Amino acid sequence: MTIYINGRFLTQPMTGVERYAYNMCKAMAEQQLSFTIICPHAPIQACYDVSGLQIVHYGRGNSHFWEQCILPFFFFGKRNYVVLSFTGLGSILIRHKIMTIHDLSFLENPKWFSRAYYWWYKLLTPLAVRTSQHILTVSAFSKQEIRRFYPFIKAQDITVIYNATDDSLFRPLPQVATPQERFALAVSSLDPRKNFNRLIEAFSDIQDCKLYIVGARHRVFTQQDDHAAQQENIRYLGRVSDEELVRLYNQAVCFIFPSLYEGFGLPPIEAMSCGCPVLVSDIPVLREVCGDAAIYFDPYNPNEIRKAVKQFLETSHGDRNACDVSMSHRSCPRVTFSWEESAKTLINLLKEKIPDQHN
């Protein structure tokens, strides 16, 4: 059986789902699995190191049109293959495929997204599911959500392949400059479900600690009111490099993740990997991911967010190493996250669920 990867993600900036796809490809290659990435004739983003990966360019453009209408022609006349799509959907015209559903937030709350995005995924996701041989997802919570919204999918047709961090990048730094001011860090795309407005409101009377926000708004999300962000103790940093992000994780007194809905929630694990204490929303998926290695708060109540932050600051006295939750993700009691283990799980799945096809 020949394994192909939908490589459209390589032409896009590296955010959460693209990072998942990229790291899965690297981990599979390290496990000596032979596969080919099919990428459109568009520039590969500089953030991806594709040395050692087998890439074939096919077709022009890097839009959904390439994925849905051009990519299928590559497989015309081919037999005994499977296509892996790690960033969602995949072409509904390709039946020998495994697709990934990271989350179903667009169904949980359509108001978080633009109409075009909502209707595109609402219409195409069930079609992609029905034309897939198997479904991957990133948490037990997301698996439950898939079954809730698409009850026609059998539980045995969904496999959880967890996210992980790059330990060579996200780690405690032996030497890091002392920041000029004490700050808490928040990292995410700036969209409504990430709940930054309530976090900013919670910081309205926290004067002894700044809030640094890393991330950029994406056009697929609806706009939200930002007037509350005009506070002197709020700093918007926009997009930053991975190296800069690691430095911030290492300097921050704590990391705060107020999200209302996630498929996995990678930033808290990145923060833990850098030895940064984390304060997160009390939602099921973050309980699954963070276990006892985090402080939880009600994300719908700014007063509760404020209370959690103030209690942490008073307890730690500004020393992040004094906090019991300053631990790596390996201390998480429920699961150890590793790209190597995720790749092995997928490889075993391919051997078990997708045998050689000769039709």
Layout: helices, strands, pairs:
Elements: E1 2-6, H1 16-30, E2 36-41, E3 55-60, H2 64-74, E4 81-85, E5 97-101, H3 105-108, H4 115-130, E6 134-137, H5 140-149, E7 158-160, E8 183-187, H6 196-202, E9 210-214, E10 234-238, H7 242-251, E11 254-257, H8 266-273, E12 278-281, H9 284-290, E13 295-297, H10 302-316, H11 339-353
Description:
With 359 residues, the chain is of the alpha/beta class. The chain has 11 helices and 13 strands. α5 links the parallel β6 and β7. The longest helix has 16 residues. The chain is globular. About 4% of the residues have low confidence.
Keywords:
single chain; 359 residues; alpha/beta; 7-stranded parallel beta sheet; 6-stranded parallel beta sheet; 33% helix
Whole-number mean pLDDT: 88
Please estimate the helix content. Answer: 25-40%
Radius of gyration: 21 Å
Which parts are unreliable, with pLDDT below 50 for 5 consecutive residues or more?
Answer: 219-223, 325-335
- The backbone outline, from C-alpha atoms, is globular
SS strand fraction: 15-25%
The total count of helices amounts to 11
Q: Give the strand tally.
A: 13
**Order of SSEs:** EHEEHEEHHEHEEHEEHEHEHEHH
State the secondary-structure class.
Answer: alpha/beta
> First CA to last CA: what distance?
12 Å
Strand order of the largest sheet: 3-2-1-4-5-6-7
Sheet bearing the most strands, described? 7 strands, parallel
